[in-house]
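Request: When convenient, would you put together a sequence paired with its structure tokens?
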Amino acid sequence: MMNTLQPIIRTSSIFAVLVFLACGDESAGDRGEDLVNFGTPDAQSVNSGNAGNGDTIMDMGAPNMPDASGIPGSAGMSGEAGNGGAAGSGGFPSFGGTTGTAGEPGMGGEPGMGGEPGMGGAPGMGGAPGMGGAPGMGGAPGMGGEPGMGGEPGLGGEPGIERPTLLQILSDDGRFTVLVTAIESLGIQSVFEREIFVTLFAPTDGAFNALEEAAPGTIEGLLDEPSALLDVLLYHLVAGQQLAETVVVTERFETLQGAFLDIEANDNGVTIGNAALAEADLLARNGVIHAISGVLTPPASPDIQRLNLIESLNAAGNYTNLLNVFDILEYTEILSTRGPFTIFAPTDAAFAAVEAENPGLLDELLNNEQAALKQLVDHHILSGSFSKAAVVLNTELLTFRPAYLSIVTDMSGGVTVDGVTLSGATFEATNGHIHAIDAFIPLIPDQQVGTCAMPTLIEGFGRWTGDTRNAFATQVSTCGEEAESREQIVSWTSPVDGFVCLDTRGTAFDTVLHVRVDECAARRTEVACNDDHENNLTSRVELEVVAGETYFILIDGYGVEEEGPYLLSISDGACP
């Protein structure tokens, strides 16, 4: 279940109308994990996170973000792509505590006859996690304490066989050691373990050996050239879980590298590019692997002169309204000369759809409500150059607003950004990327400022985002030099008895996490406090809780200057 912060709606009527773009009252909560940024890095950007004129291969920190005044003068607009946040905090791991993608609940036993507990009241069999980690349906207690009819495990009621990740299959199979080495050399192992659906046409060791025999030194040369290696690897990846039955009836796939891959199926077998299909449908919980007998070589990129972001939008011809908005907000020069940036660009059709549903809204925004217009536009711009591959291989991206966008790649290969489908057109500019969308990304209202008098209410387990910069510094802690920075305060009622784990992994500033019970405004009621967890900037608290008890969680900063967007996670069970 999606957990949401209680939003506060601005009094502006225009801002309220803008909320019609949102899906319900969902906030930017329940988000936050490692950031992956793929592209063609320059030599200096591979490990530093400084994008220069290219893209970083992997950015494990939170992206740099503009200050409260917007794009002008912000650190996030000088070309820094990521790693401007806390080094090594890394965000949330891909599969930490989430249900596996294949996660259908195992069908547990049917209730025993009568459904009443007998002597001893032993529960029916079942209830173990189904495939992907979702709980199976447990049988009801059988008569006399033994499982009644149907109380035995039903289909899937045994503990589900959790499929391995793509990386686990590659590592355990034994035929893909060179490919695993290539992935590790790029430092992108987490990409192949996170909750996405991709298809990997995986060259076997035999395929790499044949390549090496034909052209000695090729493998070593690729390992020494991360940008070339990444290009080759992405040419072996396709969005979605494309099973063999789909592959054999498809003439070509668009790869994450951007070029197309031809498929030929006949009585002699299936050919992927210039490689034979050796084994199909090695199913993972986050995609599928097809073993192939050759290494695929992407075609040479056309030698074209690239335009900057604004020039690219002008050349495309269907972004007249967006370009006008950029002029009004004085973003045109910034998006022409600085970067890198990524724009999820609403087409003129997207503007027309808004106007048709709300006549006069756009004129009102342009003429009288530019603050609200800026929030909407900032929700479509990212710091850093995110190619189509980078979008597909992430599960969330941070905008200038700042707020997280949820990226979903479904089994068919379709990609949505907070529910808005990428229309397919992608432009690579000299200072970033443009991804066309035919609707506006839902704009979430500002989050509430949580105080002891009026804390932000959150429920259940999950992840939430917020920002301490618009909060107040009224409370001090027993650790972290009393945490004198501004703090956001949330109220959480435990749904369970036992231990829970609270942490701020992925937050870009030095956090202090402290928890109080009974009385929020009194430090004497503090029951837990943590400054640096294992010598990094994030905080972690393991707390023994009582079901129905309300706890006040204070997300704070170590020093007066330590403030900004945060990520808060609450998970059931002791901290790992």
